Amino acid sequence: MNKKLLLLALGIPFIMNAQKVAKPNIHPAQGMPLAPIIESFTDNQLDTSSSNSVMRHFSSTKRGTNTSYNFIQIGNTYYDLQTNASIGRRIMLLPNGKISAVWTTSDNKTIGFPNRGTGYNFYDSLAWFPSAVHTARVESLRTGWPSLGVNGNSEWVMGHDATLGGFVKSKNSSIGSKSWTSTAAVLTQKDKRPIWGRVANSGNYFHCIANYSDSGSALEKRAPTIKGIFAPMTYSRSTDGGVTWSTLHALLPGYDSTRYNSGGGDQYAIDVKDSIVVIVSGDMLEDVAMWKSTNNGLTFKKTIMDTFKYAPYRDTLVFKGSPLVCDGSLDVIIDNKGKAHAFWGVTNVTKKNKSKDSSFFSPAQSLLAYWSENVPKTQFIAGGSQFPADPNPDLNVPGLSDTTYSVYPGTYGARQTNFKLIDGSAATYQGARLTNTALLRSPSAGMDANGNIFVTFSLPVAGDVDDAYCNFRDIMMVNSKDNGLNWENPIDITKMKGSEEDFGCIAKKVDKFVHLIFQQDEAAGTNLINHAGDVSLIGDNGNYIMYAAVPVSKILDGSIGNSYTKVDRIFNSKEIFVVSQNQPNPFSSNSEVLIWLENQADVTLEVTNVMGQVVSTVTYSELGAGNQILKINGDNLTSGIYFYTVKTSTNSVTQKMMIEH
User: Fold this and answer.
1) In angstroms, rounded to a whole number, what is the distance separating the alpha carbons of residues 176 and 644?
2) Using only C-alpha atoms, what is the Rg of the chain?
3) Three-class DSSP labels, 87-109
4) What is the pLDDT of residues 555-573, one digit of tens each?
5) How far apart (Å, rounded) are the C-alpha atoms in residues 601 and 133?
6) 373, pLDDT greater than 80
7) Cβ(43)–Cβ(113) under 8 Å?
8) Whether pLDDT at 621 is above 50
């Protein structure tokens, strides 16, 4: 069966949903509502199921090759919606090779997810939390949408209280500790529900951007209109580590009814570096704008990065053509010289008459936009024709006939796809699309000390579909070797066949590796949006939170993943690998070496002393491609300097280490 991703023609419109918080005056078309921003309390879910073991290495076939990549499972969740648009900060690279990661989790499928909260795992230079997949929340009450940071000798997370509004700040006793304490919700507002926060800090200066939940129910709070903007994005600031907030839900300068009529949840991003704070915001009917502060958020200056010429949007406006606009998923990073770099997904909108029901957008766009203070103009750095159909798209999908229609994952709700099973019976499936984002969505950016920029994003892949024939997504990456002046061809990083990888987030700080987490699912889309209540589409083990350490050297030389436009640069070598510095170092008993294998190989780890004498040799047979962890034991070695060499049949890498008893 030739099952390719069906890209909708850009002229085929999709109508915006009136329920969406950001645009209350835009009306749905008959039978084609699009996904609202989701904050679910009453989803019909399943009974509790067991979880897998920690350090699960998921091995999957690389499309078009016989290679498999291994990634490390660090968590599990039955709540599968990690964001409505922008992903935020969910993973941090800490000193000495330590890593922290968070996600929205639930350890069971009880209706309403009463145990929902922040999932947390920590890599202490030796291992992630052992013995069982970490699923339990760090808070004592129901939260979601966590932001992660470090202040002093401890970590903090802030997630929203969706029921009452406001944000719960939790803090552990020390970096990497499993012992967390939570405060009462902060930034609450009477008769309002501020949620969907993005929080970042520099020391005791905490900065929060947020939006408001809205509901038409008579018993629930409506989103407010402030200075003519419905459900606006707000900014809050604390100067004492998030204990008290001197700035409360303020509107940033230039964020007013002259350019905006409403805000949108998760349609913004923030980065902080020393005293610099940068906030970006965008949606399909507004400017893409940046606010920058150089004095810890005391004052801000606004810059419009991409102008929406019909702002502020009104029902009676008629658009000329179909302007390209931001889909609401953005990220921003501050470089080593204090300059901002912003990224966003792109869609296009049309409005051909003054009718309230004639506002359309098309999620069929596949473009990643980029703007920086170094080159202050909008550029497209990924997408479009760079992602054609898979070179080997034929799949054997169980239960489907050859006449099955290939579903583009942009349909939702009342617009369903009907198909026939092999036995002739009919079945129905809702398309797998995340709210109102575009085909290419949710960028996440990181940077290394040399000014190399790495941006991941989510994109459906042709030729890889689930049992209901919706296309799975992969995590893609594009990179720049010169601080954003030029960009390389995009590559497919996760490249897993038969599963969906979405909600990718990379650590802002990149070292020898790009440190990445993502959610993996056996069905396209999310249960909360696409399959709510259909228990047959939720796996017994929920969704996996996976970690990958992708070697920078292999990204920069183009030998990793799959560049659809430069296939000849791939797989032209054998056991290419990257070897990290062992962690911890110095050490007394045990240390670990993280490696990346491009193909399966036998690997030898050899330890020698300063005289060149071999003191330890360990052989690993047929290690799979991707991330692997090698262990060094120093119990029987005297204190001093040693060298370890990682060898395959064609390569070897030697590093120095120190043992201290």
Assistant:
1) 27
2) 24
3) CCCCEEECHHHCEEEEEEECCCC
4) 998 777 653 322 222 222 3
5) 28
6) yes
7) yes
8) yes
Q: Which percentage of the chain shows pLDDT scores above 90?
A: 46
Q: Where are the domains of the chain?
A: 14-183+194-201+269-569, 577-659
d(CA 410, CA 8): 9
Q: What does the alpha-carbon distance between residue 34 and residue 43 come to, in Å, rounded to a whole number?
A: 18
> Which residue pairs from 609-614 have beta carbons closer than 8 angstroms and sit at least 24 positions apart in sequence?
609/640, 609/641, 609/642, 609/643, 610/640, 610/641, 610/642, 610/643
Helices (H), 469-594: 552-556
Does the predicted model carry a pTM greater than 0.90? no
- For residue 106, which amino acid is it? S
pLDDT at residue number 541: 77
Torsion of CA 200, 203, 206, 207, to 10 degrees: -50
CATH of 577-659, one of 3.40.190.10, 2.60.40.1930, 1.10.510.10, 2.30.110.10: 2.60.40.1930
Question: In CATH, what number does 14-183+194-201+269-569 get?
Answer: 2.120.10
Average pLDDT over the chain reads: 77
The one-letter amino acid code at 125 reads S
Q: What is the pLDDT of residues 15-70, one digit of tens each?
A: 333 223 333 222 222 222 223 333 322 222 222 222 222 222 323 333 333 344 67
